[in-house]
Amino acid sequence: MKARTVDKIATGIIMAVAGFIILLLAGFLAYIIVRGFGHISYDFLTSPPQTFREGGGIGPQLFNSLFLLVLTMMITIPLGLGAGIYMSEYAKPGRLTDFIRLTVEVLSSFPSIVVGLFGLLVFVNVFGFGFSLFSGALALTVFNLPLMVRITEQGLRSVPREQKEASLALGISKWKTITSVMLPMAVPVILTGTILASGRVFGEAAALLFTAGMSSPRLDFGNWNPLDPTSPLNPFRPAETLAVHIWKINSEGIAPDARDIAAGASAVLVMTVLAFNLIARWLGRLVYRKFTSSR
Amino acid sequence: MARSVEREKRSKHLTEEWVGRVYTLICVGLLVLTIFSMVYFVASKGLSTFFKDGVNPIDLFTGVKWAPEGEPPLFGALPFIVGSFSTSILAALIAAPLGFCAAVFIVELMPKFGRKVLQPVIELLAGIPSVVYGFVGLSVIVPFFRDIFPGQGLGLAAGGVVLSIMILPTITTIATDALAALPAGLKEGSYALGSTRWQTIYRIVLPTTLPALLTGIVLGIARAFGEALAVQMVIGNAPHIPTSLFESASTLTSAITLSMGNTIMGTAHNNALWTLALILLTMTFVFVFIVRWLERRSKV
Amino acid sequence: MKKSLMFVMSIVLVFTLAACGGNNNSGTAGGNNSTNKGAAGTNEGAGTNTGTGNEGTDAGTELSGSYLATGSSALQPLVDQAAQMFMEKNSGVTIQVQGGGSGTGLAQVSEGQANIGNSDVFAEEKLDADKAAELKDHQVAVVAMAAVVNPEITVDNLTKQQLVDIFTGKITNWSEVGGADQKIVIVNRPASSGTRATFEKYALGTKAEDLQGMIQEDSSGTVKKLVGETPGAIGYLALSYLDDTVKTVKYEGVEATEENVANGTYPVWAYEHMYTKGEPDAALQAFLDYMVSDEVQNGVVVELGYIPVSKMQIVRDIDGNVTQK
Description:
heterotrimer, C: D-Maltodextrin-Binding Protein, domain 2, D-Maltodextrin-Binding Protein, domain 2, elongated
């Protein structure tokens, strides 16, 4: 009965390790949220940061993070959808397609710091956008694009062949078939993937240090003209996002409550990412159910 | 009449087709262009260390002394290369068994609880920003190591542990997928022959899924290799090859983040940092090729 | 439906790209306006903010323009705060303050990407001589640095020679400088750091070594945290970062205080520079004047832990020659 004993021991070890991982994760999340939660208030979420006095908030940083996310997605989604459609529907198997696939794979595994440096060199210096939200959004696009392409491909592949063939057989053009038959059916997969990708954008810091900059100029939240330098909507202003702010305040903060602010901001960041995940799951399930029951 | 409508429809179709094709092609073109310009720009900057500043590549890859502001400046990047490899491999050594156990737990032992609770939570870890990992590492792991082990707490070990938590999701997700994709017949056959669960896992599941598991590990190492901020906060950043796991060390990424803002574009020091970035870039290619090779093997 | 959606998307994209192209031009025009003279010239760079620029509170002069200051992260809070106050008085002026490091600031002002380059060091120490000659130096504050140790260390004075020996690795135990038998842990800055350059130049008089096992951090916050937590640690910090989590040691018997820096007995300090390329235009000059006005010098400068330039009784040039004012 030696094998039985070994089996029991092994099972025990695996259970123990799984338990350890659960404890570790729970402890990790609890540490961040509990430490920072006490510092979160309406005031903290809306007021601007203070350089050396107590009581600074993260209002502009939170806004910058969200705005940057929107900007990035505005660029990433059309490009990613297009490239994804090409890869799954138009590309003919062969050397070239293999090569493009390799490119996508390489691009997706580039370290974010390298993407940031590339952004510094090309978007900030060569194109002359300077440290701005737009440079940041372009840099984030670079490293989000491969993900979006993969998501689109997956989504389109999940569409049953018959649907596509039926549409083509009706004499509908391929492009029309893709956009009005296949894409709507692929929406659940694409949507879930996009939201998960958004979480990644939200927390990215290394790629933004050298592109979106580390300061937030005076923002006038009453001014919504996107061309005005003090307007929050101006994409050509430098902007510090929440993740970058945490990094900066941890390293250079001289406000007496810098540690608390970092803890509070970390908690906000983690909870936002958590929310993104939950929404993605919930939405995915909801849309899936709707699709499967209505058919 | 009907014919002209037909023709109109046809031409409309053709335009539509054409627009779709061109649009998607442009998107793909941009994608390919991005990667080419990226390689071009980073390489042109990184190689100028050798061509413009006259640094011998052999000195750079084998030199152990990094003193870019010294007289004469020395650019020995070996400590950073060693640091990057040792932290990421250490991270993989910690995360791989954990990830495998978690996957077995999810697929074989308690699928219901595993799929509903453990898997989502582990995937959540992937979304947590790296600055938060660095923050927790500096406030929890570093003091903990400082109290327990000799040294100052900062070092390869702290970096490796922080990275291992960061790459756990990658390894677990891929291992879970691989285990779940295993044909049920294989396992059932093994059980039918009287094997215990562990024997089945050890003799059947592990060998057949090995290439996929390795893929996960390589992807994890690749992620650890490129991670910057979290590592920089906990590793100590001394430009030397450390003699112990608890001694301050540097990685390629930490050297870049530490000095990029303080140096001026075009100077030898700055170019040397770009060379480090170029090494990172090259390693990315290497990792992707290893993954592809492994994937081909797992298909056979 | 979906097709039109795709079209809209691509149009939006094209529009965004086109808009950014156009805007980019005006943006760099704003960035390059160090050659422009007066308010009229800089208005173009400011884009559409002419509407808000009509309420200047200062006596008659209408200042406007959009400026970018980048560079030293140590100087950033000061300039940022002063800029906020300046902009409240002159609503037509927008000054954006960026970090990024002294090197970035000097490079960007030299290439015309920024109007002001904030730096902890003289431009000559980072840039080529001909490039540095084009830049005009405005010294706005003095920052003093002190060696700090872990609070548990009993040593409270270190001579120059002792510091040199510690930072070059000749002394590795606190007992050799009169403390307890404990290993010295050095928390240094990276070789590229301006803070390190200052400390090496004025406290050590020589380059420090990158020793095996030492810790290197670029940021003052991390240095303070590590020195405060690590037994046997020594590092150096600007006076503004000092508090009771770390212990400040005297240098050659002299305490790091404002008076000692001002009268020249404590040598470990540096000017904080704001460089412009050539002569600044009216609005920028007004801002630089404001930086050295009593309001800023006795207000924010002191609050942030810097020493006002006006209080300095001595002047020091780039080679370290000290003259009485």
